[in-house]
Amino acid sequence: MLTVEGLSVRADDLELVREVSFGIGPGERVGLIGESGSGKSLTALALMGLLPDGVTASGTARLGGRDLVGVPERRLKDLRGRTVSMVFQEPMTALNPLMRVGAQVAEVMTLHGVAAGRARERAAELLGRVRLPDPERIARSYPHQLSGGQRQRVMLAIALANEPDLLICDEPTTALDVTVQKQMLELIAEVAPALLFITHDLAVVASLCERVLVMYGGRVVESGPLREVFKHPRHRYTEGLLAASRLAPRGTRLATIPGAVPAAGRFPGGCVFRDRCAHATETCATAPALTDPDLTGPEPRGDGHAFACWHPRR
Ligand SMILES: Nc1ncnc2c1ncn2[C@@H]1O[C@H](COP(=O)(O)OP(=O)(O)OP(=O)(O)O)[C@@H](O)[C@H]1O
Ligand SMILES: [Mg+2]
């Protein structure tokens, strides 16, 4: 349903996201993980056509037969919300503080041609659908009168208003306390038509997603079915990420990845992870391609577990 091929994002001469390719099927929930500065948000913003000024995307992304990259802004406005919608980390910056939340939910529908009266009715329905108690009262409230968790539910109602085919969530629960976070995740799992979920929290991905993409240095370095990748990570970066989390495969010790994520443009050539990797050799000066060895080996299994590493974990 969503097919992304060779998606790159650049700002001036800096390549911030490089040749990213993946797909998301109908109803599928895909996690996008990686340390801060890996290019996760830029990938999502490129799909939404919401890149900041001076930042451009190339490559192709198609959703339900429509192009998302390289489309004029006028056409994008029409697609955004209807085809793909996004929930951001900080709902307070995304909501208008001077407008009642019911009117804000209704507005995204009237912008897409729904009549005002019908949009108001649907807004209350949607606020109920995201499990806000007493939706009529919530609709009349201003954002500051709601809790952080309630505001995030309003954002989800807005994202769902025009029945998108794909929902993208970028760290939607980081600012919420643990119990509210859990409820929000259950709700997202229930209402998302198909999901791209960005987070640092590997446990959240493990509970929510069927597939996972691991990004580092603006590239996807490993991807595949969640169980495969988390139980048997192959890329040394994924191995490090898992070892540093509480989801470490049995027998590994809680560890950290040495060094820090370089600033954009400061990643080494070849394998982007090689200056932090204990297994790097001269071979790693050549960039490894993201491939699924099972597809090229003697007995192709084709579970779609791919990685870009010259010295993978066995
Ligand atoms: N407008 C911009 N101009 C130049 N560089 C940018 C711009 N926006 C982001 N970057 C750089 O691109 C890289 C990737 O940014 P991005 O926001 O996608 O990271 P991320 O994986 O979402 O990180 P986080 O987990 O912290 O949200 C970072 O090094 C960032 O500094
Ligand atoms: Mg981000």
N/C terminus separation: 33 Å
Main beta sheet: strand number and arrangement?
7 strands, mixed
Mean pLDDT: 92
- Coarse shape: globular
Widest sheet, order of strands: 6-7-8-3-9-10-11
| Radius of gyration computed on alpha carbons | 20 Å
- Continuous helix count: 12
The small-molecule ligands in this entry are:
adenosine-5'-triphosphate, magnesium ion
Give the strand tally. Answer: 11
- Helical fraction equals 25-40%
Q: Could you characterize what this model shows?
A:
The protein is α/β, with parallel strands linked by helices. It has a domain at 94-162. 32% of the residues lie in helices and 21% in strands. The protein is built from twelve helices and eleven strands. The protein has helices at residues 40-48, 73-79, 91-94, 101-110, 116-129, 135-139, 148-160, 178-191, 202-208, 226-231, 236-243, 293-296, and strands at 2-11, 14-24, 29-33, 55-63, 66-67, 84-87, 166-170, 195-198, 211-216, 219-225, 306-307. The chain has a seven-stranded mixed beta sheet with strand order 6-7-8-3-9-10-11, with helices on both faces. The longest helix has 14 residues, at 116-129. It is globular, with a radius of gyration of 20 Å. The two termini are 33 Å apart. Residues 11, 16, 34, 36-42, 52, 55, 200, 263-264 line the site of adenosine-5'-triphosphate (ATP).
